[in-house]
Amino acid sequence: MREAVVSLADVSFRFPEDPDNTLTGLTFEIHPGERVAISGPSGCGKSTLLYLLNRLYPLNCDGIVEGDIRLFGKRAEEYRPGEINRLIATVFQDPDSQFCMTTVEEELAFTLENLRVPRSDMGRRIGDVLAKTGLAAFRHSIIQSLSGGQKQRVATACALVAEPEILLLDEPLAHLDPLTARNFVRWLDGLQKQTGLTVVVVEHRLDLWEEFFGREMTLGPGGRLLADKPAVPKPPTEFPGRLSRMTAKPSLSVTGLSVEIGGKQLLAPLSFEAAEGEVSVIAGPNGSGKSTLAKALCGIYKHNGTVRSTGTGYVPQSPEFLFLTNSVRDELAFSGLAAPETLDDLAGRLKLEPIREANPFSVSHGQKRRVAIGAMLADNRPVIIMDEPTSGQDAASLRELFSLIDERSREGVTFLVITHDMEFAAGVADSVLLIKDGRMTGKFRAEDVWEEPALLDAHHLLPPKGADRRAPAFA
């Protein structure tokens, strides 16, 4: 076996303001061409480990590192700032955090300029990577006009244009529709076989990767390595059946809603109703207008048409946009509408108790999302819209989210949930609202959608493996 490209010997890491380690006593090697999955519960230090491997930490956080880290046989601290990025490229969990330029082409060119690639070679490399990532049509697009899934693909293209030897990916499928996610895995499989690239991925949804990984490293509390073994395909998270308690009384009524921004129509006029206690999943391809609809319903985007609601709360795809305080405790209590025992129950069930005094901006991506969910549930709104609430969540957190939605819906709360997780959708949904190309295809009974392969395929969805466990939605 060739010399390891990554070698850690008894490595621990903590942030200077924290008394406890985020990572503890890690010892392992990664060799050229390996495909490694890093798994473990939300908040256990998976992303922090990636940031040690690409030297983002400790250089950009004053973190304290103990032990020995070697990259390509050289001690990590011997690399000059930025030097390792020629060899190790990273796609972050939040793609917005790594964009600096306006358009896709400008972002790719900016990456190449930082690597001092000759201008005469830039056009070819940009064209090649856009073709490989299926983004050729978006070459001149404004990045901030793209959907979350499209941004994730742009971030991946920016990492690959550097032609690295190691690719680090932090939950790269989290914002991709099911068909795009499957195609991404297959595309990455072919690319890795062609180039011999070493691939290291932080991932909760290992079932989506099928047999891609050769090895799985599992982290536990305190960032300790619990297991390092050959990877085996994982089944999806299972959810118990739920019986709908929705009433005939509408909580949300939408008539002729459309959205136009900068002369471009993002949503064609659409109309639908959601009943008291109904759980409706909004699904469709990346860039189809799902988040645009959510923002219009909450009044973030100006719109034409009429929206009648008994009161709407919103959990955005980027949860930090919701935060207004300096602690998780204060975020949960911000509305002042929930009793202390309710806040304690939410903190416990959403696994927020250990970080209750932490700044909500400093916790992991999955924890940020649960803080935002908890804050909105504590707000006691009769209609709650959640944009990708399953992103970054481990299986236990997904099951708890399912239970919370189920319980609140039985109390009469109406939920609109944007998700690409079809197993979660099959477990929780009474109805499915399908959107494609800025137009609403229709609102369907959930069980009817899972039985229509052509409908699923047209909206970049895959049949959920757990659909047969769903209780009748309108019983």
UniProtKB/TrEMBL annotation:
Bilayer disposition of the protein: Peripheral membrane protein
InterPro entries cross-referenced by the UniProt entry: AAA+_ATPase (IPR003593), ABC_transporter-like_ATP-bd (IPR003439), ABC_transporter-like_CS (IPR017871), ABC_transpr_CbiO/EcfA_su (IPR015856), ECF_ABC_transporter_ATP-bd (IPR050095), P-loop_NTPase (IPR027417)
Family annotation (SUPFAM superfamilies): P-loop containing nucleoside triphosphate hydrolases
GO MF annotations, alphabetized: ATP binding
Domain (ABC transporter): residue spans on this chain: 6-246, 252-462
UniProt keywords, alphabetically: ATP-binding, Cell membrane, Membrane, Nucleotide-binding, Translocase, Transport
Broad class of where this protein is predominantly found: membrane
CDD domains (UniProt xref): ABC_cobalt_CbiO_domain1 (cd03225)
Subcellular location: Cell membrane
Family: Belongs to the ABC transporter superfamily.
Protein name: Energy-coupling factor ABC transporter ATP-binding protein
Highest classification ranks of the organism: Bacteria, Bacillati, Bacillota, Bacilli, Bacillales
